[in-house]
Specification:
The protein is α/β, with parallel strands linked by helices. The protein contains twelve helices and 14 strands.
Length: about 400
């Protein structure tokens, strides 16, 4: 038996049969068997209910009641411990009734040896463990679905009133207001835009969890996407933000420019956030074929910022990492940015990797498939993505948003 010890509850009103069964249990090699003996049907229900054993060996004939009755009662009460019914003679009807009632096995006493008993106990325990694991997985999946649906509903409902608030801020800003009032409106706009970004992250994450986030592949210019990203970000004074395009970068690629822009905005935005000296470089180059053997392109985001420790790198792409750990310097965020970016990279046929050293800086490398004009259909891509790792709900420490 694969387990080092087994606790057996033996319900048997015949002392001779108890001694015989106990002797067989002691002959099971490489396993310590701890036997609890219950001598009558009156004490059996409570002993089974306590759930202290790994397996129950239940005699069929127990005076006033049968083992079959006790079996049905235990199963009805939600007993998870596997129960093997023992009988003194073969009876096909009892065998069928026992299995229908939920018995793990049905053994005839006169035909049992140590090997048969060991196998029956081992299989019963393994089946019970497999069933328990399956139930836990189903419960976890149901919990994740409910959580994703909740995030999606809340995020969606928050966006509408938030858009109204920001709209009124724009209206008020166009009016003739005092300088200090304009400063207040600017603060409201900044906070509102930040909140909208967080809500969008939550909505994207919910879609990813539910498997409903899609990509729209079409022709686009990687250089144009890079320039748009850089134009939208403003580094701190004294920090240079530059673009480097190698000659092997194609003028046109086939991907989702919106999702590509979203990933690069997150990576470069993080670099801007965490770099107060030196420079930030967004670099593009051709790469070796990705998993789909399509032409690939790499985007590297190099910075001279605060860097990350080995411990932080381990859990860097886990969701809600920053939200749990708190961010250095008071930077706020959900910790979903890199989680979403990595999943989007996988949707685009690639991945994101990182190299970093505290106090020196970091290099984030985004690789995506460029997809030729005769790129695979959406069904082909969906088939590939079924093998991509799913994002779970975990919370760990990391600096990046």
């Amino acid at each position: 038996m694969s387990v080092p010890s087994v606790k057996v509850l033996l319900v048997e009103d015949d002392e001779d049969d108890y001694l015989i069964t106990r002797e067989l249990l002691t002959e099971i090699g490489e396993t310590t068997v701890d036997v609890e003996w219950v001598k009558n049907c009156q004490d059996a229900p409570e002993a089974i209910r306590r759930g202290r054993s790994d397996i129950v060996l239940l005699d069929y004939r127990l005076g006033e009641r049968t083992g079959l009755e006790l079996l049905r009662e235990a199963v009805a009460e939600g007993c998870k411990t596997p129960i093997i019914l023992l009988t003194g003679q073969g009876d096909h009807d009892v065998d069928v009734q026992a299995m229908k009632a939920g018995a793990a096995d049905y053994l005839i006493k006169g035909k049992i040896d140590a090997g048969i008993l060991e196998r029956a106990i081992r299989y019963a325990i393994e089946r019970a463990q497999t069933l328990e694991l399956r139930e836990e997985q189903m419960a976890a999946e149901a919990s994740n679905r409910a959580r994703s649906e909740f995030l999606a509903i809340v995020s969606h409902e928050l966006r509408s009133p938030l858009s109204v608030v920001l709209g009124f801020v724009d209206v008020l800003s166009d009016m003739d207001v005092l300088e200090h009032q304009r400063e207040v409106l600017a603060a409201i706009r900044r906070s509102g835009n930040h909140l909208r970004a967080l809500v969008n992250d939550m909505l994207d994450f919910a879609k990813i969890e539910a498997g409903k986030l899609t990509v729209d592949r079409r022709k686009c210019s990687p250089r144009e996407v890079m320039r748009e990203v850089v134009s939208m970000l403003q580094p701190k004074e004294g920090v240079e933000l530059a673009i480097t395009e190698l000659n092997d970068v194609p003028d046109t690629i086939h991907t989702d420019p919106t999702r590509l822009r979203q990933i690069l905005l997150n990576l470069v935005g993080n670099a801007v956030k965490f770099t107060s000296r030196g420079g930030i470089e967004l670099r593009a180059r051709a790469a070796k074929p990705c998993d789909l053997e399509a032409p690939c392109i790499c985007f590297e985001v190099r910075d001279t910022g605060i860097g990350l420790s080995e411990t932080q790198l381990v859990d860097l792409f886990e969701p809600f990492s920053q939200a749990k750990a708190g961010s250095p310097g008071g930077w706020a965020g959900t910790g979903l940015g890199l989680t979403i970016s990595k999943r989007l990279a996988q949707l685009l046929g690639g991945d994101i990797t990182v190299e970093s050293e505290p106090g020196v800086g970091s290099t984030f490398t985004l690789t995506i498939a460029t997809w030729p004009c005769d790129a695979p259909s959406s069904d082909d891509l969906s088939a590939f993505l079924e093998g991509a790792p799913a994002v779970g709900f975990l919370s760990h420490a990391a600096h990046r948003a």
